[in-house]
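Review form for a predicted model. The reviewer records the input and the model, then writes brief findings.
Reviewer: anonymous (R2)
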Amino acid sequence: MPSTRPSFWRLIGAAWLHVLVMLPTTIVVALLTGFHLSTAIFAGGLATLCFLFLTEGKIPAYYGASFSYLPALLGLMASKAFAPHPLDTRIAFAQFGIIATGLLGIAIGLAVRRFGKGFLDKLLPPTISGAFTITVGLSLAANALHESAHSPAGVTGSLAGSLAWVISLATLFAIILFSLHLKGAWGQLALVLGPLAGCLVAMIIRWSTGINFFEKMPDTAKLLSLPLFSLPRRSWLAVAALAPIALASVPESAANSDEIDAQVNGHALASKKKPRKRHSLCLISGGISDLVAATIGGPAGITSEENTSLMAVNKVFSVSVFVIAALFALALACINPLVNAVYTVPVAVIGGFEIFHLGALAAHGISLLRDRQVDLHSVKNIAVIAVILIIGVGGQYQYGGNIPFFGLDIPSLAAAISAGILLNLILGLGEKKSKGQA
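Model under review:
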């Protein structure tokens, strides 16, 4: 249970499992956006310690990098306004936007504490949160396929592209097979073991054909060093791009809170544990954790679903496990050879990972619409879903993630969420909610 501590070896083993489970998402977010990997891992560990402290050790969770922000961050980093600046400056601008998301999370948490979750359900019904989740998954589909066919630098010809697909598909099918056939906690490591299998295939291809798909390892003389920390720099464009994503991610945070509570207290007791206070505490703590992570140069985060799933499997809900896992992450971020080894992972392996993870994310959005019994015969619901999907996904493919509007580059996902929320409120004016209507 949260307040108890397992035996030493079970504590260490469970903590390492949580570190391994959180790593794939953190690695992919950092590699795709350009955030420094060691800083992202360190920020996740620090944010987790902050979250556990603020929740008074009552909510076992790991606060890791969130995939929900990935399309917006990619669009932001590639925008014309950011293009003239070096990478570290663009990261600093993005940090300012992430800090704004943290402040927004705190504000929403305080509002939930004051008014209850009802106003939040009206502002962000499952119609919006489900469509948002689908959009996040589908908007990066082309990115996943592009990386799956990525040839090594300086290598041309169809053979290299075809072999890249072999590596990507090997990664994808390994993840699927491991997910299907590994039982218990091992099944939760499919997102780790699958990419390792892809790297093994890349090694075999290198030995047999001489084509090296592994990236060049960064030069680092020191064995141990602190990550590269950076301070945020003001960018209102980053705020406009990321704040709507934070708003749309609130239902996911609340759902993760409910799932953790149900696991710890039993589904029959979950509804009796003062959900208003718990949701408020999670949102406020998460917002402050994002502030902490962003201040040193880390990406935006959320209570990790992968870690929550692992906790459900191994039935270890001890907060001590997450404290040790966070400390392990802090230490891991300082070991340069390990961090640099991740940078050598073939791009095609990342592509295979993305095909599965992004597709699963889109499927999760569909599942959310179904589980929350959203009425897909309602014109209002269809209109809201249509607007979010087409602006979000279409903006990503037609305009590269930034829609030109009166001389401004509007991030497509932020525009989609803002338009969906506004349309839902307008169409809901004077509406009487009937039983079973979403």
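Findings: Residues 4 and 318 are 6 Å apart (CA to CA).
Further findings: DSSP finds 18 helices and four strands in the chain.
Recommendation: see findings above.
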